[in-house]
């Protein structure tokens, strides 16, 4: 991934009327829309990127297909460039779905439903579109191999799905959280002619061809809201790169693996709580086709994604079952019982250092069988005003030295939360669990359980930063950090989650 912003954080200049999209194919007549059906070949699991690397032919085919995908003519409706552009820039209609902005004025927002009820489910048909095109290229490449390899590659192509990057998974300290497959500039592949060659890693970055500065040059752009806050951390903490601002984030190949993981979290949540899904509310922010105040619910069209050539749109209700789009995830593919799924989640994330609201955030360590005690949980509520620019709030327990580039390595660092900063009158609310850090302070003798709240209000510190630079707190005076506590009953079995007893008790504002 190239550490460049492509001018994405440069100040707002005017879009040129000249565009490589001038040859973009309009698809407004019934029967001519782009039909998003998902991948072919039945229902197969999306694999974690490190697991996909172990698959031989499928991994090789994935790299070859992604390389051809990124090399497509940028004027094609299903090119990497055009599909990535749905999310934000270059702010043009896709598949004939026009903006609903007042007076037809082109807004500097894409179709993505950030900071809205439909955030996570909107990305489901979006990922399916990307996966559908990627697989179609893979099928074409597989057919170019000669027997007996050809049959192996054709089978791999039918099963190939978009991988996900599980950034929350507990991994050995010897391994990097950021997979090597995403950070190396060159990879070796076997071509259909059986030659092994080194190619540019298609997961490392996306090269615009051409890079039109008038098209990609500046900033822009409730429900599963807590999940969106966790999602924001990954985007913001990968700056400087294409993953932020959101107007250009979909051009970064990591975006697709990141959002596949977010979708996986939603799918796991659905499996655990099948009756909980999308409710109803009014939009608070605008997109290309949604205006503030518009009613949103499970039947709201997820524009610009058509289900058929006649122009029917996908909705959250229609996209509820991932099987209908040809994919599933390893944890849910055999429809496990809740007890089995919970045990798997605890196995994956026990000991994870990742901070944020994921379904397992309270299950930091395994509980002994038969243990049943009420314990204290410590948390922070962070108010993140939407300034129009991305930033992170870093939490420390004790003093912190050095520049922003070393904060996460400081021994006092506890966790962080982020916002993409999409301008809005309503601030984000993020919840952070700091129980593990408090338990460590008690074990080391720095405080006691009885004096923990007093200790925290005195010792907790926080700073604001973005892209390895500190932002003065005086510049972000509306950011607020509050200490909360609650009681938690520890699970007595592996197939159970800890259970919160009562609500959260406010303990004071953290001023450190």
UniProtKB/TrEMBL annotation:
* Highest taxon above the source species: Eukaryota
Any transmembrane segments, and where?
Answer: none
The protein's UniProt keywords, in alphabetical order, are: Copper, Melanin biosynthesis, Metal-binding, Monooxygenase, Oxidoreductase, Signal
Q: Name one Pfam family in it.
A: Tyrosinase
Domain annotation Tyrosinase copper-binding: ranges: 252-263
Supply the enzyme class, top level.
Answer: oxidoreductase
**What is the required cofactor set for this protein?**
Cu(2+)
Signal peptide stretch: 1-18
Q: Which GO molecular-function terms appear in the entry? A: metal ion binding; tyrosinase activity
Q: Which PROSITE patterns match?
A: PROKAR_LIPOPROTEIN, TYROSINASE_2
Report if keyword Ion transport is assigned.
no
Q: Show the catalytic activity.
A: 2 L-dopa + O2 = 2 L-dopaquinone + 2 H2O; L-tyrosine + O2 = L-dopaquinone + H2O
- The answer to whether the entry has keyword Flavoprotein is no
By its UniProt entry, which SUPFAM superfamilies does this protein fall under?
A: Di-copper centre-containing domain
BP GO terms, sorted: melanin biosynthetic process
What EC number(s) has UniProt assigned to this enzyme? 1.14.18.1
Q: Which PANTHER family match?
A: SHKT DOMAIN-CONTAINING PROTEIN (PTHR11474:SF76), TYROSINASE FAMILY MEMBER (PTHR11474)
Q: Its family?
A: Belongs to the tyrosinase family.
Q: What is this protein called?
A: tyrosinase
Look up and give the organism this protein is from.
Amniculicola lignicola CBS 123094
